[in-house]
Design brief:
The protein is an all-beta fold and 118 residues long. Helices cover 0% and strands 53% of the residues. The protein is built from no helices and eleven strands. The strands form two sheets. Strands 2, 4, 5, 6, 9, 10 and 11 form a seven-stranded mixed β-sheet that branches. It is globular.
Length: 118
């Protein structure tokens, strides 16, 4: 059974870096050919894809967020981390981590709420 669990601060101040970690169990983040993704849902809006890290550690980001986003993996802990710099209130959202297999999301984390506010 694959499980993903998001963790990180629920409140971030504007201009700070939003950092979230996804801990994976039941699967290795280095197993080909899975992609490990971050997705968010702002209040009252639809899902927005942020980016993903593939099994080799290569990363791909949404063009609208690329300049502020990084995703990195820790193979020893089987975790991957999202960092979104220069946070603004528009980054307030429910953040999910997920696994992509053959272009389909097959597992989701439960989601974690992040609010950007002073």
């Amino acid at each position: 059974q694959v499980q993903l669990q998001e963790s990180g601060p629920g409140l971030v101040k504007p201009s700070q870096t939003l950092s979230l970690t996804c801990t994976v169990s039941g699967a290795s983040i280095t197993t080909a050919y899975y992609h490990w993704s971050w997705i968010r849902q702002p209040p009252g809006k639809g899902l927005e894809w942020i980016g993903y890290m593939d099994y080799s550690g290569s990363t791909y980001f949404s063009p609208s967020l690329k300049s502020r986003t990084s995703i990195s993996g820790d193979t020893a802990k089987n975790q991957f981390t999202l960092q979104l710099s220069s946070a603004t209130p528009e980054d307030t959202a429910l953040y999910f981590c997920a696994r992509i297999s053959q272009s389909t999301i097959d597992y989701w984390g439960q989601g974690t709420q992040v609010t950007v506010s002073s």
